[in-house]
């Protein structure tokens, strides 16, 4: 991958970690600065480089919900492959309380896919909302 295609400023938008639920035992913090390609699993942050960001939005009118996917294409120098880090936000558009401003993010989960979105590498965890 040509280094000119890298956009390392995208790291500022990507949370450094997600959480995996451990049932009644709490949760575990998972770093998002590692390669999620099953054959690699490099944990060297310096070998990962964001390339681009894509946003997809889908409305579910009967449930008054919006699903927003933010996909970051990441290149790994260790295995020389690309993968997507996907943040899927479930947004409740059913705002009946006038005191509530904007959209309400109900849940945001994180998973990884291959660069063509053909193979899902699995759910990583969820992002804790502020």
Q: What is the gist of this entry?
A:
This protein is mostly beta strands and 130 residues long. It is built from no helices and seven strands.
Descriptive report:
The chain is mostly beta strands and 130 residues long. It has one domain (3-126). Helix content is 0%, strand content 50%. It is built from no helices and seven strands. It has strands at residues 17-21, 27-31, 48-60, 65-76, 81-92, 104-114, 120-126. The strands form two sheets. A five-stranded antiparallel β-sheet has the order 3-4-5-6-7, with no helix packed on it. The chain has a two-stranded antiparallel ribbon with strand order 1-2. A hairpin with a 4-residue loop joins strand 3 and strand 4 (65-76). It is globular. The N and C termini lie far apart (35 Å).
What's the SSE blueprint?
Blueprint: E1 17-21, E2 27-31, E3 48-60, E4 65-76, E5 81-92, E6 104-114, E7 120-126
Antiparallel strand pairs: 1-2, 3-4, 4-5, 5-6, 6-7
What topology, given as strand order, has the largest sheet?
3-4-5-6-7
Round the mean pLDDT to the nearest integer and report it.
Answer: 86
Spatial separation of the terminal alpha carbons: 35 Å
Q: How can the largest sheet be summarized?
A: 5 strands, antiparallel
The dominant shape is globular
Instruction: Specify Rg, calculated over alpha carbons.
Output: 16 Å
The tally of structural domains comes to 1
Structural class: mainly beta
- Would you count the extended β strands for me? 7
Count the DSSP helices. 0
Give the % helix.
under 10%
> Helix and strand string, N-terminal first?
EEEEEEE
List unreliable stretches of 5+ residues.
none
Percentage of residues in DSSP E strands: over 45%
């Amino acid at each position: 991958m040509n280094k000119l295609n890298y956009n390392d400023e995208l790291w500022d938008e990507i949370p450094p970690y997600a959480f995996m639920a451990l049932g009644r035992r709490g949760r575990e913090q998972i770093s998002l600065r590692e390669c999620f390609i099953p054959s690699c699993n490099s944990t060297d942050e310096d070998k990962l480089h964001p390339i681009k960001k894509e946003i997809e939005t889908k409305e579910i009118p009967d449930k008054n919900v919006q699903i927003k996917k933010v996909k970051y294409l990441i290149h790994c120098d260790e295995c020389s492959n690309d993968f997507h880090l996907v943040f899927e936000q479930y947004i409740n558009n059913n705002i009946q309380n006038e005191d509530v401003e904007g959209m309400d993010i109900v849940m945001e989960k994180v998973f990884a896919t291959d660069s063509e979105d053909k193979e899902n590498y699995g759910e990583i965890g969820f992002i804790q909302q502020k």
